[in-house]
Amino acid sequence: MADDNLKGQRVLLCVGGGIAAYKALELVRRLREAGAQVQVAMTAGAQHFVTPLSFQALSGSPTRTTLWDSAAEASMGHIELARWADRILIAPATADLLAKLAHGFADDLVTTLCLATTAPITVAPAMNHRMWGHPATQANIATLRARGVQVIGPEDGPLAEGESGPGRLSEPGAIVAALSPQAESAVAIDQALKGLKVVVSAGPTYEDLDPVRYLGNRSSGKMGFAVADSARRRGAEVVLIAGPVHLATPAGVKRVDVRSAAQMREAVFAAFPADIYIGAAAVADYTPRAPAANKIKKSNESLALDLVRTPDILSEVAAQTQGLKLVVGFAAETENVAGYARGKLVAKHLDLIVANRVGVADGGFESDQNAMTAYWQDGERVFNPGAKTRLADDLIELIVERLNA
Ligand SMILES: Cc1cc2nc3c(=O)[nH]c(=O)nc-3n(C[C@H](O)[C@H](O)[C@H](O)COP(=O)(O)O)c2cc1C
Questions:
Q1: Closest residue (by CA) to atom 1 of ligand 1?
Q2: Which of 95, 181, 188, 280 is most buried, by CB atoms within 10 Å?
Q3: Which atom of ligand 1 is nearest to the CA of 93?
Q4: Is the pLDDT at 156 greater than 60, yes or no?
């Protein structure tokens, strides 16, 4: 990298104990080429993969390897180092480090530095794709993102253990580029929704049968929450209408909690006018005609429920003209996914529909992973299967393209 985008920046590189630790050596070289001063701190795990001496040789400064260093700590060295850094880069960030950071642990040098600093923190995760996809890791990443931590990668591709999936450390050149102050303007997509208002619906709806029972569905809300987060990070004002789910609200997003389809409709229309509507909620199609005032008692051998249609929020939104530039629907199908999705696109007058197959392993409802295809009137895009957070970014990118088409 010939640019000196990081000129004068003091970067503290924290190296975690992953197989990709060797790539952090290349990172030091790239950071210095970009004009940064670099100091390196390693976890105990990292030292099983690469030696502190290699980092010392490349960074030109002693490598810090432990909190329990009496010489360095004579002057509270860890606080000094935390203050010295203009920014902290953790690469590779292990699943373990992400968990510790999300929960505020400070039981070694790297985690203590991260807690003691006021500098911005960037993490570049690298791990086995199942570790990355695990709900614990995804929740930790969401917590860190919500706290303003910059997350770079991981990339999709072959992994050290002979498998393939999201988990590869981003290339050192890409990490350094994403750190540079110019990165925000260089990545035009990041602010491509600035000035626009996006309303996203997410999660299931619950239709009450009586005071203790309801008709619901298995939507987790994860995809809609990830889409709301992605739109917000690209500069949009985002209102998230959430059915009953237990998910953290993405940073900077206005959340409105609802329970039933009728409440969801009301909240969606109350959030208008808006520029973009993304209907990612799994809204019930039917609701009891009249919920029982008291608990329905077990009496007859069978029970027939009298159900009536709920409002079709997506069709109603697409039919109204409050300045919406784009209406996006989701189709969760178990069969003939493309056929049903295209049918819904036309029948509901949508601009874009995102189809995913539910009821299969590693995708759809409840999972952190998904496989989706988007359809519009004269085109379609098959997204690489992977984490819902990454797919949300891909979808928002497509939405930006369609807005400008
Ligand atoms: C050969 C080997 C490779 C590993 N690769 C990774 C990895 O790529 N990512 C990861 O999160 N953990 C990986 N681990 C597990 C971590 O080393 C382990 O969770 C350790 O506690 C991390 O410590 P640290 O987070 O303090 O660096 C690996 C372990 C071994 C033995």
A1: 19
A2: 280
A3: 11
A4: yes
- Residue whose Cα lies nearest atom 28 of ligand 1: it is 18
Burial of 266 (0-12, 13-18, 19+ CB in 10 A): middle
> Which of 14, 19, 23, 129 has most ligand 1 atoms within 8 Å of CB, for mutation?
19
pLDDT tens for 18-63 read 999 999 999 999 999 999 999 999 999 999 999 999 999 999 999 9
Give the global pTM: 0.55
Return the structure tokens found at 158.
Answer: 């072959």
Full set of structural domains in the chain with CATH: 10-179 (3.40.50.1950), 191-294+302-403 (3.40.50.10300)
**Buried b / exposed e across 173-185, counting CB within 10 Å, b at 16+?**
eebbbbbbeeeee
Question: Which of 73-77, 90-94, 102-106, 359-363 is predicted with the least confidence, judged by mean pLDDT?
Answer: 359-363
**Which amino acids bring their CB within 6 angstroms of ligand 1?**
16-20, 43, 45-46, 94-97, 126-127, 131
Q: How far is the CA of 247 from the centre of ligand 1 (A)?
A: 27
Ligand 1 centroid from CA 128, angstroms: 9
Q: Which residues have C-beta within 8 Å of that of residue 88, sequence separation ≥ 6?
A: 11, 12, 14, 113, 114, 117, 119, 120, 121, 122
